Amino acid sequence: MHRIIAAALLVVIVGCSTNEQKPTELRDTTIAERGGAVAEPLVVTDSLRMRYHPTSGIELHCVLEQNETLDQDSLHVRAQTAWYFTQAIEHREPSGRIHMRMRYDSIRLEQRYWHGDSAALQVVRYNSARQADRQDERFDMLTATIGKDIRAVISSTGAIEKIIGTGEILRALMGARADSLTHDQRNRLERQLEAELYAQVLAQQFLLLPESSLDSSRTWSRSIPQQIPPLFLAIAKATYRIDSLERRQGDSLLLISAVLDGKIQLVPDVEKQAVALRTGNVRGTAHGALSTRYGLMAWRNNTVEYAIAAEVHQRDGSRDLLRQYRRSESKFRVQYVLMRQQ
């Protein structure tokens, strides 16, 4: 017997009677709370089928905070980015696919970088709330996203199937020059915007659920390939486990942990070039909570580390050693949920 780990949102609103039917709105901040819950062991005696199952009409107000560390040869970069965004669940197909609208409400960025032991630290900052930053051409791509809706289609297991609507952002960036693009050029640029601005954020939100039912081990694995531009590709295996069930007033949270382990390889086109990969490893951990009330992740924390050493053969016969260490930390959380009813 299969059990769907999701539940429809039940909203009871008590108000004053009027002659006109006015929209009502419920704001629920309990999904963001991390304390006051009672943890219980979860026992799977039969089979457990996990699916994202959000209620149509709910509006999620979310934040994703990212911290990046990059050490590549003599270059050192430290970056912090905060994405504040709103998602509205439009509907679910009979297959379980989720159709949603998404927009960025604000974006904040700080990058610090230096070379070697140099004390010449360079700092770049961006805050979409500041008019001067919005007028800075260096951040045109970020500014172009603020307040603009795109649409995303997510499978019931969390795969990002489609992102629609980056054409308007491309036009905001290029102006009249967008009309001179060929169909292939436009598609390529729109796919790039989808990947850099939206897919990477959605991937930190939607943990990949199992395709088949779980048994008593409560574990599953997924293969996660990831491009490391421009030379490398990470092939990693993520092993997930449901650790326990947390009950709080009005909701139950499935607490999930994951371990990531894999190797780095050269992208196929690079293998023909004068680049030899010496070592390459990827590892990571993740923790998150799936809300059974809303059928979505309430929060999720991820840490991934990459270590790469490669040899580049120059035309003059010399060899350069490329070393790269990268650490990515991300913290996603739903700040609050809005439910509107007529």
What does this structure look like?
The protein is mostly beta strands and 342 residues long. The chain has a single domain (24-341), classed as Lipovitellin-phosvitin complex, beta-sheet shell regions (Roll), CATH 2.30.230. The protein has five helices and 14 strands. It has helices at residues 131-134, 140-143, 166-174, 183-205, 268-271, and strands spanning 24-28, 38-40, 58-72, 75-92, 98-115, 122-127, 150-154, 160-164, 219-228, 232-248, 251-266, 275-291, 296-313, 319-341. Strands 1, 2, 3, 4, 5, 6, 7, 8, 9, 10, 11, 12, 13 and 14 form a 14-stranded antiparallel sheet that branches. A hairpin with a 6-residue loop joins strand 5 (98-115) and strand 6 (122-127). The longest helix has 23 residues, at 183-205. It starts with 23 loop residues before the first strand and ends with a strand. The model is unreliable at 1-23 (pLDDT under 50).
Distance between the termini: 37 Å
Order of helices and strands: EEEEEEHHEEHHEEEHEEE
Q: Please, how many helices?
A: 5
In helices, the fraction of residues equals 10-25%
Q: How many separate structural domains? A: 1
- CATH topology value: Lipovitellin-phosvitin complex, beta-sheet shell regions
Give a quick account of the main beta sheet: strands, pairing sense, barrel closure: 14 strands, antiparallel
Tell me the β content. Answer: over 45%
Q: Identify low-pLDDT runs.
A: 1-23
Q: Based on helices, strands and strand pairing, what is the structural class?
A: mainly beta
Tell me the Rg in angstroms. Answer: 23 Å
Average of per-residue pLDDT values: 87
